[in-house]
Design a protein that fits this description.
With about 375 residues, the chain is mainly α. Helix content is about 65%, strand content about 5%. It is built from twelve helices and four strands, in the order H-H-H-E-E-H-H-H-H-H-H-H-E-E-H-H. Strands 1-2 form a two-stranded antiparallel sheet. Strands 3-4 form a two-stranded antiparallel ribbon. The longest helix is centred in the middle third of the chain and has 42 residues. It is globular. The two termini are about 15 Å apart. It comes from Compostibacter hankyongensis. One of its GO terms (molecular function) is acyltransferase activity.
Length: about 375
């Protein structure tokens, strides 16, 4: 894979890799009791650096799709639909496989094994499910309607979603944890046993209804990718991205008092805010890497290693960490807790030890990505 061939943007590979590295960092602290505020999600309203990771990833999905879609469309409609539905189905299947992993558990008291295939409490939605659905919907809209109409739909989704939350939520409590329409629809469709339980009540931050504006995140990423290809590695491209990013940030901040920025509801102001910031980051990377060619020590290589196998490395990180929880080390302590309390906490203390644990895993999976890159192995889902 030649990153310097004509038409390829190193900056976009770096953006994608930065997103994956940040995903691993924020998902794997040594202890959730000791997480620095920027590396944790906002409690409800607001946006931390951690809250940018998922929308940046969806933006990157759309961005990458703008480069690959033309290749598949040249093969005919059947090839496009096969690609879209195959990828969607694979991501869904992988997400459920991860849910059940490691498939069997050992009971140290009874010295017996039992399977983990209990469908009565499986979480239906989730991060990978949202990626699959948002990708599928955006790809179909762009394929059948063209970019201009798909972009218009992506824009119209934002006020429509606001209206749905106001109309279907509890009067006066439409944007609260227990009164929002996202929760109501998921509870109706799946029941409380199939929702995420980490918020104190059954509520899924990747719910069905809140996946609707996530589709807009992918479409906006696609439009940005097309713009970058049209303008090339130029100051005009950088200026256009900054202008669009500034407009989106201004709209988000103006909308915020009425429809607050909130990742867990994926509010429309959150879509505009995170898209605006993504445009800023890409503009800076294009200016640094494509125009100024500023790459001392080949620093970009660290991130492109992640960016070449993004979804695979993210899934691998999930699987490895879940394996830690399945490996008993001492009575009442699994390998995850053992690594933190025996290795990182004594060396660095509570807070820095928790961060060091996360950084260690970023470096661990970077080494995996580096090995794959050197072997020219690029795993596409």
């Amino acid at each position: 894979m030649n990153l310097n061939r004509p038409g390829r943007f190193l900056s976009l590979d770096v953006f994608r890799g930065m997103t994956i590295a940040m995903m691993i960092l924020v998902n794997n602290p040594g202890s959730w009791r000791y997480v620095f505020a920027p590396l944790d999600h906002a409690k409800w309203f607001g946006c931390t650096p951690t809250d940018l990771v998922f929308p940046f990833f969806l933006f990157a999905v759309g961005n990458a799709m703008s480069f690959s879609m033309k290749k598949y469309e040249a093969l005919g409609q059947a090839a496009v639909l096969w690609k879209i539905f195959r990828r969607t189905a694979l991501i869904f299947l992988i997400s459920y496989a991860i849910h059940f992993y490691p498939f069997f558990r050992y009971d140290a008291v009874t010295h017996s094994w039992s399977h983990k295939f209990h469908l009565d409490h499986i979480r239906i939605m989730g991060v990978l499910q949202r990626i699959a659905l948002a990708y599928c919907a955006a790809a179909l809209l762009i394929h059948y309607l063209g970019l201009r109409r798909a972009l218009l739909i992506g824009i119209l989704i934002l006020p429509a979603y606001w209206g749905l939350l106001m109309w279907l939520g509890d009067p006066g409590a439409q944007l609260t944890l227990e009164g929002n329409a996202v929760l109501k629809l998921d509870r109706f469709l799946f029941g409380p046993d199939h929702l995420y339980h980490g918020e104190g009540v059954p509520f899924d931050p990747e719910g069905v209804l809140s996946t609707l504006p996530a589709v807009s995140s992918v479409i906006f990423g696609y439009r940005a990718g097309v713009f970058i290809q049209q303008k090339g590695k130029s100051y005009e491209c950088v200026a256009g991205l900054f202008l669009a990013g500034t407009l989106m940030l201004a709209l988000a901040l103006c909308w915020n008092p009425l429809f607050p920025i909130a990742k867990k509801l994926w509010t429309s102001s959150f879509v505009l805010y995170t898209t605006g910031l993504a445009l800023y980051v890409i503009a800076v990377l294009i200016w640094l890497l494509e125009i100024r060619a500023w790459n001392p020590g080949n620093w970009s290589r660290f991130f492109t290693v992640f960016g070449k196998n993004p979804l695979f490395i993210y899934i691998l990180a999930d699987v490895v960490v879940l394996s830690y929880f399945a490996i008993p080390m001492t009575p009442g302590r699994n390998m995850y807790g053992w690594l933190y309390t025996v290795v990182f906490q004594p060396l660095f203390g509570n807070w820095m030890g928790s961060l060091a644990f996360a950084v260690f895993h970023v470096l661990l999976f970077w080494l995996v990505g580096l090995w794959l890159d050197r072997k020219k192995i690029y795993i596409r889902v």
